[in-house]
DNA sequence: CACAATACCTTGACAGGCGAAGTATTGTGA
DNA sequence: TCACAATACTTCGCCTGTCAAGGTATTGTG
C-alpha cells in the first residue's frame, strides 16, 4: 500500500533536509534514497522535489552548485546551510508534537 | 507552540470522523473539543471545518440534519455513516504507516 | 542505432486550508 | 436598555504545495 503524498504534505522539506544532513546530494539521488528507505512505499514526484528545492533555496536552508562530472549527466548538488540545520531540528520537534497531537485527537 | 495546519493537512477528515465515532455532533462543538483535547495547541479554522463537512458529506462518510433547538442558534448535526466508520479505520491504518515512514526518513 | 537510465527543468491545473466578511440568535454586564 | 460577547453557520476568493505532462541532454547497453 503506497502512501498518498497528501498525508506527507508539509513534511517534504524536513525529509529533504534529513537527507542532506550527512552529505551533499542531488535531486535524483535524494529521490532514490527516499524510495529505498521506505521500500518503495513513498516517493516524492520530480516536480514536487524540484519546486521544494527552489523554495528552500530561497528560504536559505539549502544552497546549490553544479557538480563537476566528467561523465554522466550534469548534477546540481545541494548543501544544507546552518539555518537549514536549525530548521531541521525545529521541524523534528514539530513532528513529535504533531504525532502526539493527532494521536490524542483520534483516541476514542 | 501552536501547530501549523500545513502539518495536519490531509488528516482533518480523520480527526473529524474520530469526533463523530461516539455520538453525533455539530461544527462548533467539534471545533471546541479539538481545542480542548489539544490544550489549545491546535484548532481547525471555521472555513476549513465547514468545507470539510461539505466534502465529506459528498463522499458519503457523514450525513447531516438540522437539530431541533428551542433556544440558542440552530445547529447542523452530523452523523458518521457505516462508510465513514470504514474510512476512519482505514485512515488510522494509514496514519500508523505515515508515522513509521516519516520517522524512517528523518533518522540520521 | 534505438532505447533505457540518469539527471534536470517548466508549465498549468487542482485541492485543501484559511482570512475576511456576513447572517442570526441568546445571554450578560454596565 | 442596550451594546457586546458568545454561539452557530455560511460563502468568497486567495495562497500554497503537489503533480501530470511535457521537455532537454548525456551515457550505457542490447
Write up this protein.
- 2 copies of one chain form a homodimer.
- The longest helix of chain A has 25 residues.
- Chain A is built from 4 helices and 3 strands, in the order αβααββα.
- Chain A has a single domain, classed as Arc Repressor Mutant, subunit A (Orthogonal Bundle).
- The model of chain A has no long low-confidence stretch (mean pLDDT 93).
- Chain A is globular.
- The two termini of chain A are 25 Å apart.
- In chain A, helix 1 crosses helix 4.
- A 3-stranded antiparallel beta sheet of chain A has the order 1-3-2.
- Helices cover 55% and strands 11% of the residues of chain A.
- Chain A is mainly alpha-helical and 108 residues long.
- The interface between A and B is medium-sized, with 33 and 33 residues.
- Chain B binds a DNA duplex (30 and 30 nucleotides) through helix 2 and helix 3.
Chain pair with largest interface:
A-B, 33 and 33 residues
* Strand fraction of chain A: 5-15%
Assembly category? homodimer
Distance between the termini of chain A: 25 Å
Largest sheet of chain A: 3 strands, antiparallel
Average of per-residue pLDDT values of chain A: 93
Overall outline of chain A? globular
Relative helix content of chain A: 40-55%
